[in-house]
Design brief:
Chain lengths: 282, 270
């Protein structure tokens, strides 16, 4: 594990054409890292994420992705992700291939990847048309003991998983507190793990069963205060629900979206610059 | 007759909340279901156990979450577990009494679409997708659906079946081996639809005061059957309305409050 400036961590470890999972379920979404990928203009990425959220709307709208593996692609509580919709409905700015699952399927796919298994299993497959869409990869197999029908979901092992977390200690161990989603599984499944954190502390003072990623499973870490904004970091800052509402209008048409990205991502040096430009940080 | 002192949205939410019994374990969808479940918890069902797919178990939010994983849900929960755990240990293991869902389209057998309008490969409208709904509708002991009713949303044929209701009806769901019983009620802004005991086709079983059967039929994309004994939904109690309005008012304030981040990275952990 090495501590690197975020731009350097992305430049070193994220390559065109890789499969990349930026995880964190509503909470701890690595926005700063996503913006750095956009700034460095990575292309042909296979983006993986249970809930694409605004950061994948931005990556897709800026043409970074050729494929999306996901299970729910909306602006939570608000409505559509307009850039994701435009890519699927009108192939703008480029065609996007979808690999679509349910939450439970992606959860076991990450777990399988994290466990060194070829597939994850679910009991009793839900009767959904998702089984019949182009590229559907869930298969039915019998349980060898009971004969019961099980759904098998192929494991996911991202080339790179990127997380945001609260703290890193002097030895490089990382603490995650609060809503987890499948962040831990996505990290343990990945070939490389990048983490941005709110702050560096001497000791995590974590409870015995806390969610800690030991330093040696992490490839590189970056100290990025506010790195999950406009999502949130429990104990540091809340979700900016007003921004999530505002994004609906910002991303609705292509010109408005591109102007926003130009000004707030390309027009600033780093995430602190974005936070200042939005008036969120002094 | 004077106009009622509640809106159709309000009686819909109140009616949805009344479907939940105290002590039930409920897997909550975002939006209308979340409002109804929290209203129930704040009125007649204080021991209702609310579970959101973000892994927050037994959560008691003071304001409604905008997303399924706002910090409010974690801070007020009995425990916060990972997403694989919530789907495996709680839902798939059979610990959920009621799944509470919304959707973009529903058909006469309570099957739900939240994936696409039009053809999957070339959709007219790409919707957010499945999320947790297919497994919730499969495994929860029973399902409640809350949706505004219109011919566009109550359709004769779904463009895409994201989550199963009664499949083709007449026992098809049970025969498929689905563990949960399926949708017990669909609460709309006109009244309540419930499955016919044999055919499992949704039929109108209760109407809000001042709503006509003709109006509900006009808002339904299939020839809607009406139950022999059509009930009238009791109007919202003043306490229910006051609680709901306070909840929405608190939520509006909370969701508009500005966020400030301290870049000097000094934690102010609660």
């Amino acid at each position: 594990m090495e501590v690197l400036p975020l731009a350097e961590a992305i430049a070193t470890h994220v390559r065109d054409g890789q499969s990349i999972a930026l995880e964190g379920f509503t909470h701890l979404i690595p926005f700063a890292a996503g913006h750095e990928i956009i700034r460095q203009q990575r292309r042909n990425l296979h983006l993986i994420r249970m809930t694409p959220d605004l950061i994948y709307d931005q990556l897709i709208g800026m043409g970074c992705a050729e494929r999306l593996t996901f299970s729910w692609g909306g602006n939570p509580g608000v409505g559509s992700l307009h850039r994701l919709r435009d890519a699927v409905e009108n192939q703008w700015p480029r065609p996007l291939t979808l690999s679509e699952f349910t939450h439970a399927e992606l959860a076991v796919a990450y777990q399988a990847g994290a466990s060194g298994l070829p597939c994850g299993l679910l009991r009793q497959h839900a009767a959904t048309d998702l089984l019949r869409v182009p590229g559907a990869s869930v298969r039915t197999i019998p349980c060898p003991f009971t004969g019961a029908e099980l759904a098998a979901v192929p494991a996911i092992n991202p080339d790179v998983t990127i997380l945001h977390a609260q703290q890193i200690d002097a030895d490089g161990n990382v603490l995650i507190r609060g809503i987890l989603g499948a962040a831990r599984e996505a990290a343990m499944a990945a070939r490389r793990v990048l983490v941005s954190v709110e702050e560096r502390v001497e000791s995590l003072r974590a409870e015995m069963n806390a969610i800690v990623l030991p330093s040696w499973v992490i490839t590189a870490a970056s100290i990025v205060p506010g790195g999950a904004y406009p999502s949130y970091a429990q104990g540091y800052y809340p979700r900016d629900n007003a921004f999530y509402r505002a994004w609906d209008e910002i991303a609705r048409d292509r010109e408005g979206f591109l102007a926003w990205m130009q000004r707030h991502v390309f027009g600033v040096r780093d995430h602190a610059g974005l936070l200042r430009a939005l008036g969120v940080a002094a | 007759m004077s106009s009622p002192d509640y809106s159709r949205d309000e009686i819909m939410t109140v009616t949805a909340a009344r479907q939940l019994r105290n002590g039930a374990v409920c897997f909550v969808g975002i939006g209308l279901p979340s409002a109804a479940c929290n209203l129930a918890r704040m009125t007649h069902a204080p021991d209702l156990v609310l579970i959101y797919e973000s892994g927050t178990v037994g959560t008691r939010p003071v304001v409604l979450p905008l997303s399924i994983g706002d910090g409010e849900l974690a801070e007020t929960a009995t425990c916060v577990v990972s997403l694989p755990e919530i789907f495996a240990h709680y839902l798939q293991r059979g610990r959920i009494d009621v799944g509470f869902l919304g959707a973009a389209q529903i058909d006469c057998f309570g099957n739900l679409n939240s994936t696409v309008i039009g053809d999957y490969a070339h959709p007219r409208v790409r919707l957010p997708g499945a999320g947790g709904a297919p497994e919730i509708s499969t495994h929860a002991r029973e399902v409640l659906v809350v949706m505004k009713q219109s011919p566009r949303s109550f359709v004769p044929r779904l463009d895409f079946r994201t989550s199963c209701g009664y499949l083709e009806g007449g026992g098809a769901r049970h025969a498929s081996g689905c563990p949960g019983a399926g949708p017990r009620a669909v609460i709309t802004d006109f009244g309540v639809l419930r499955p016919h005991p044999q055919t499992e086709e949704l039929q109108l079983t209760a109407l809000y005061p001042g709503v006509s059967v003709a109006a509900v039929r006009a808002a339904t994309g299939w020839p809607l059957q009406v139950a022999e004994e059509l009930e009238s939904v009791p109007i919202p109690e003043p306490a229910e309305l006051a609680t709901l309005r306070d909840l929405h008012a608190r939520t509006r304030v909370a969701h508009a409050s500005p966020v400030h981040i301290n870049l000097s990275a000094v934690s102010h952990r609660r």
